[in-house]
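Sharing a chain and its predicted structure for anyone who wants a worked example. Both blocks are below, sequence first, tokens second.
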Amino acid sequence: MAEGTEHTGAEKLAVLLMALGEDVAAEILKLMGPKEVQQIGVAMAAMDNVPKEMVESTLGEFIGALQKETGLGVGSDDYVRSVLVNALGEEKAGGMIDRILLGGNTKGLESLKWMDAKSVAELIRNEHPQIIAVVLSYLDSDQAASVLSEYPEKVRADVLMRIASVEGVLPVAMNELNEILETQLKGGANMKSSSMGGIKTAANILNFVDGSSSEKIMEMVKEADEDLGTEIEELMFVFADLIEVDDRGIQTILREVQTDQLVLALKGADSELQEKIFANMSSRAADMLKDDLETKGPVKLSEVEEAQKELLVVARRLADEGQISLGASAGGEEMVG
């Protein structure tokens, strides 16, 4: 690992876990979701000759953070809510707060996050579209999009409309879902209502569906309910919308993206967005990226779309963490001076 470079959160956490030892690291990783475990695992695997200075600075940050915390109120609902909101942001923490504080046993649903999209799709393929909608509302948007893509177009549109129309999941629906999963996944029956689904969830999922399929789904949704389709469209954030992200946000995103991934993503971008990316890099890095784009040659549209989706995953994660703003087009409030 090179010295003098700015390290990602995953890299810092990887250093911290390695410093704490295998047993402690294993216990901490058990508390994380599949995506976080994968990111940290990749960072750990890439670790080589970590400078002593980085270990010391990472531990220093960790100790400093601990010193700012207090043990008073640990175990209270207010404390748990505050910690989760501070760590994940209000929106992302909402569902988790419900699951923890409302007493819901979501082990069965949580298990789905560790399964590949095809397996999840097969598990719920023959269920009522409303049940499929509940499951997809619970999954992360990119995983839900992959599961949705396993179904015929007509089913996709129906399920997406149901996701957009859900304002909350009632106990009876969660009980029914647990009964369906009971034979293959363990889960409790005493579920309480949880804030899942809604128009923004539907828009987030559709963001990760490939371009042609996304357009067809939206056509079918608008045919059935034009107003709903328009609302979903207004909350979608697609690759071209990165033009609305401020320079500081673009620079933050670029620090998290690999060059080969960026080259592929920009092959399908218009010149205005390309220039915005170039303007937020050093002149040397921008020249190298331009050369890479020119020498790359023709690439498959599916590869470009996949690279763009991966970049959008990074952008949405950074937005959820409060590091960048995706603007009003992503469902946030418009800022005024």
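Comments welcome. Confidence is low (pLDDT under 50) at residues 70-75, 99-106, 186-194, 328-337.
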